[in-house]
Amino acid sequence: MSLSWSDEAPAxxxxxxxxxxxxxxxxxxxxAAEGLRxxxxxxxxxxxxxxxxxxxxVGDRGCFAQVVxxxxxxxxxxxxxxxxILQRLIDWSKAELPASCHVNLIAEPGxxxxxxxxxxxxxxxxxxSVS
Length: 131
What we know:
Layout lengths: L2 E4 L5 H10 L7 H9 L3 E7 L2 E10 L4 E9 L8 H16 L5 E4 L6 H6 L14
Parallel strand pairs: 4-5
Antiparallel strand pairs: 1-2, 2-3, 3-4
Helix pairs in contact: 1-2
């Protein structure tokens, strides 16, 4: 298996498809295009031309950044791709964002161990969202 890594955003269709096969919430194509275009940084991994993993950083480039869209094709899980994607996002943020920039993420309970291993802390509080 030959994997290639890139900092290039995926095409909208393959982004939507990776989200679908990983059980993530659906995004409208126009919203996905806008989101991808406005990413601070993107990490993708491919087997040949096929998108098999990705992650993004979004934010204001100064005070706040958030890790989003960490997704690995189910056929490729268990190989450390999610950890490597997240590490590449962290490395980029340390090199490119101010040291005082707060980098956060919202994690599913089953993923806490991975994120803690890479330096994230679990914070108590309340997540609010508007739909």
